[in-house]
């Protein structure tokens, strides 16, 4: 018997491969009943872990990060020093939005904010939502803390088709905007201009409304850049992570692997907490996207004469030509 199959009546017959472990030969695939049992067991185990985390954290931890968004000062949002509880760190346009939403009572704000995060997570994770909830504890901790990592991940996903969503990334955590180099390396200049133009327009309106906020924000960013990492942060400085993120985007752009943009955005997060890894959930919807072709835009195999327009690949600027790898 060869390593790739067996010979029957002089013909080479490939070995049957397992659906769960395709690299292993000679194994019978799981039946639908077995797959359902496996899925059910993983879901139950995930929910059990989630319940344990919720019990251990208690209700007092709910909205730990969201509090800074709800209580932002509408005139001087950066009055709290960096590193203190309630400090607001994002750009003036985001501060102005939260300044309006801050009129809501805290319980209403927290419930609506958590509902938004849950909805975004469910959309990105799809059928894996319940399984990942406990098996990937960063998810439940992100939902409890109420940070914006899930919204950043969603912006990265949508940014392939709607480049203006990168504005949210640039005006909040800033450095994950390294993902925009995807457009640079692929020479998709129109998508890049849309992303930067939308950001510039938002900044212009914000500056006209409250120019002093921008001076305060830049001053805060300078102070933040000089601060040591917190004891609970991942001990890898941004100075090392940022070049790695650039290289990852470059490799992904060259090899049609758009999921690398989501990973790079996570690597480039300015202050990396271990639950920041929830941004990696963005890999799932990126992989789910179906474009109908693995060829590059310059490949003549795209849209051959006589092909069905309804099944032709989507060449919307910024949308990758292949999400199959």
Tally of strands: 2
Count of structural domains: 1
Shape: globular
Biggest sheet layout:
2 strands, antiparallel
- Percent range for β-strand residues: under 5%
Order of helices and strands: EEHHHHHHHHHHHHHH
**Structure class:** mainly alpha
Instruction: Supply the number of helical segments.
Output: 14
Taking strands numbered 1, 2, ... along the chain, how are they ordered across the largest sheet? 1-2
Given as residue ranges, the uncertain stretches (5+ residues, pLDDT < 50) are 12-25, 291-325
The helicity comes to: 40-55%
The end-to-end span amounts to: 32 Å
Let me know the average pLDDT: 79
The radius of gyration over CA amounts to: 23 Å
Give structural notes.
The chain is an all-alpha fold. The chain is 51% helix and 2% strand. A hairpin with a 2-residue loop joins strand 1 (5-8) and strand 2 (11-14). It has a two-stranded antiparallel sheet with strand order 1-2. It has one domain (42-292). It is globular.
Offer a quick outline of the entry.
By secondary structure, the chain is an all-alpha fold. It is 51% helix and 2% strand.
Write the layout of secondary structure elements.
Elements: E1 5-8, E2 11-14, H1 32-57, H2 66-70, H3 92-101, H4 106-125, H5 129-135, H6 138-145, H7 149-159, H8 166-170, H9 181-185, H10 189-209, H11 211-225, H12 238-255, H13 259-267, H14 283-288
Antiparallel strand pairs: 1-2
Helix pairs in contact: 1-5, 10-11, 12-13
Short descriptors:
325 residues, two-stranded antiparallel ribbon, 14 helices, 2 strands, globular
